[in-house]
Amino acid sequence: MDDNEDVIAGPDPIITFTEWFDAATQAAVPMPEAMTLATATPDGMPSARIVLLKGYDGNGFVFFTNYGSRKAEELDTNPNAALCFHWTQLERQVRIEGRVSRISAQESDDYFRTRPHGSRVGAWASRQSMPLENRAILETRVREVEDRFRDGEIPLPPFWGGYRLAPERIEFWQGRPSRLHDRLLFERVGGGWKITRLYP
Fold first, then answer.
1. Cα Rg of the chain, angstroms
2. Which of 15, 45, 49, 65 to pair with 72, CA 20 to 30 A apart?
3. In sequence order, what E strands does the chain have?
4. C-alpha separations of 171 from 25, 62, 93 in Å
């Protein structure tokens, strides 16, 4: 990009995110929907992992998990979380911070029905984040789930569903020569956004 070209145009960070996400998709960035999700325990011990963005709008960014997983337990006791997208080929990063809440069972069910058969089986078979003595036990659980639902649709597990992170801060980072990067921070203020340019 031109060194004098501004990194952001417009006051709405969701529109800018859409433009950047679409650009990453068009540039064939591998899995542009992959994002780091950072959570923490109530006493502040952090953890992070990669999850997949499955939808977003002005209300927030949605991802799915087993409600018994470590991330879910941390989110249920400390709903403050952060997301980070990094699109290396475009030298772009987006950081998002806010509070997380569970989405409705209907929203989770609507998404679950779009998942491939194997992924739906896996959601039932996995006791995510729990100790597993050996792989054979997991494979046995998979066969049991396949037998259980052999003659019908695989329904949404009651212990599985989505979360939505409602953004309070969104920062766009654009790489520049000599590490003189562009950083624009959007902070929610009332019904709008305050925009601040940050030093690199």
1. 19
2. 15
3. 34-40, 46-52, 55-57, 60-66, 80-87, 92-102, 160-174, 182-189, 192-198
4. 20, 18, 8
The answer to whether 111 touches 64, Cβ cutoff 8 Å, is yes
Enumerate residues 6+ apart whose C-beta is below 8 A from 185: 169, 170, 171, 195, 196, 197, 198
Q: Would you say 38 and 27 are in contact if contact means Cβ atoms under 8 Å apart?
A: no
List the structure tokens of 110: 């609507």
Q: What contacts 133, CB < 8 A, 6 or more positions away?
A: none
| Tokens describing residue 120 | 């739906």
Q: Which residues are catalytic?
A: 179
pTM: predicted TM-score of the whole model, two decimal places: 0.93
CA pair distance 80, 61, nearest whole angstrom: 14
| Residue 1 confidence (pLDDT) above 70 | no
Cα(26)–Cα(118) distance, integer angstroms: 28
pLDDT tens, 141-200? 999 999 999 989 999 999 999 999 999 999 999 999 999 999 999 999 998 999 999 999
13-113+159-198 topology per CATH: Pnp Oxidase; Chain A (2.30.110)
Residue percentage of the chain with pLDDT more than 90: 92
Of 87, 100, 97, 86, nearest to 13 by C-alpha is 97
What own/partner pairs with CB < 8 Å and gap ≥ 24 does 140-148 have?
145/121, 146/121, 148/124
pLDDT the model gives residue 4: 54
